[in-house]
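step: validate -> pass
step: tokenize input -> pass
step: predict -> running
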Amino acid sequence: MTCRPGKHQRILFSSFMALSLGAGASQAADWVTTRSSSPEIVKPAPEQVKLQVQNPPSFAWPRHASYPAQYVVEILPLGGTASSHTVSRNFLLPSSALPLGEYEWRVSPLSTPRNWSDKRPFTIDSNSRTFVVPESSDLAATVRAHPRPRQLPAAFTQASAWDAAMESKRRPFLNRLVSEVNLNTTAVASVNDGLWTTPNDSGQYNRIANAAGAVIRQMEAAALLFRLTQERRYLDEAMLRGDQLAALSPDGPTSYKAQDQVARMIALVLAKGADFLWLDLDAPRRAHWLSVAAQRLTPIYADLSAAGGRLDQSPMDSHGVEALGYLAAASTLLLDARPEAQAWFDFAVRSYMHIVHVWSGPEGGFANGSAYGQYTTDMQLQLWQPLAEATGVSLFNKPWAAGFANYFMQFIPPNAPRHVFGDVHESKPDPAPLKAYVARQATPAAAWYSSQPGAQENPITLLQAPYPLPADTVAPEAPPNAMLFPSIGWAAMHSDMSNPARTSVYFKSSPFGAFNHSHGDQNSLVINSGGKPLLIEAGYQDYYASPLSQNWYRQSRAHNAITFDGGKGQFIEGHYEMRYKNGKITTFTPGRDLDYVEGDASAAYSNDLSLARRQVWYSRLNDVVVVRDKLNSATARTFEWNMHALNTLYLYPNGRASIENGSTSLCLQSLRPDEEQLSRFSAPNPPLEASQQHAAYVKTTPAMAAEFLIVLDIGCKSVPTSLEPVPGGRLLQIGTQTITLPQ
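step: predict -> pass
step: emit ->
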């Protein structure tokens, strides 16, 4: 299939070019640059990506050393008059779109004299997508004008009133939910504080999540079924489960301190339940549920509002950003029902709509890996739908959300056998939440992806969604065969996205480094074909940051990446400092028959290597990958090119190796075999999985500079390959294609 660089891809590539080529005078005296130099501190935005995908963009900057009560932001259209915005926090989300054009912005504490930052340029053009968030007072007015239930569309009707089209689409999901709730009326045990010890013992966090999570789901499902069917038994079940959750002590084993995820879920489901059943609950019960929800939200607000809003300054906190989303959604449902809700609403809603994309730039993606991205989609569906209905602002329309959908289509396409990059990469994707999330985008690619066979959406979220879903309003068309996500340093290249047996080649060189759930895998490669993993990421996660994780799973040697001197690799120690021991994609050129990507992971090796550059060509015409690594060090090193397979890995003389997985295969050929030897090594194997195989091309002589040049033939087709010197470099012939390798 021919790669069609669509509108969104052009935005991504233009943004990347701005990132690569953006320049400017030294900002050594700029207080914004100085104050944001620590890896945990928020970075100024817009900054490197000059072309903005969102109009108006979200502006952010680190706090000034004087910690002023207010800041003033100037937005200056080139050749026009500056607009001035005064804010009390260190971000600005303008409440109206900007005209197309070139701009600069700067910020100062609201002081006399002004202490202006350097000006930072950005562009708004026709590719920038409008996403406007009204001021908090206007949002609150919209919420108050929405009748209860605030979280359901005004056009929401009982199932008995569905027309034929809606009946066809949604009756199967209603039947699933009826069966589930009927079964779980007896199958799901009640919960009480006596089930768990205080303080927590080892493993209790998960036991609470499983037991309380089942009751939380049953409560919301039963309340929704009552709205859809008006059957009294579902109202009774919802009240029973709500009373059980309301009886759990906000200071006990399910407190925010002890189990933050369950605490926020209980707060939200009690707010949702009261909203669903507003006119059907007796007044004392409704007041009690709302009171308990407020008690549980109070420590969340206290945590997040510390230091004037701690995430404004240090946003790289996944649990914190998620908690902010729960506070935003719950306070929206509690507005005017609890006196505290107004302050929570003003603090959380616009802040969450601003900060939601901490794991990538505004173009979308998820640096923590596709598995954790998948987990995030389920939470976003639970939060974003009620927020959209009540406030009138749908986060699914935020450009980042569209990019997040593109990210899943590229890295977890239909029939993908495993997740890719980051923690839990060894797990099999669940297509249900991914297709559900993507279905909230009205694009041909989203229509194609969400209509693929396989597991279907959670009926709780679908039956609350507007009808029809956005993806159902457009004709389907497969996404492009290649795409770059520059801010997370991921690139995907496919043989044919429309073919379930496609070859998929994934490359990563991330500015996020090995931070949080990411690994020391900059400049690494993954290859799947025919629905089977071929060149895999090795290992498994037993638990987060475990000894096994630190000593093997997150190490460079466990990935298809470069190591040296017996498996030494990239920097994965510490916390925030890992963000600066990172990689970056420096070039990405997709084409009809040949894709090219280049990454620089030099910084990830923390001064051990002065150069770690990997170039990858994917010949779509021949289904062949070429990988070239250029490596330099101030000290002579024995360099290693690691590879991993799921089942079978054969090593042969003359730099040849092969991987087999069922009917699919991959043959590797080094074009510098006289300098290398192939060597196996062993490593911990995931439980309940066939034996993983590990090997490396190892340079036979330590050196300060080295090159690996490997040809990977998917399907072991014996595509003719030759390498010839020419002035200034070499020509690599792959079948009928020629690749020029400069010196």
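step: describe -> The radius of gyration is 27 Å.
step: cleanup -> pass
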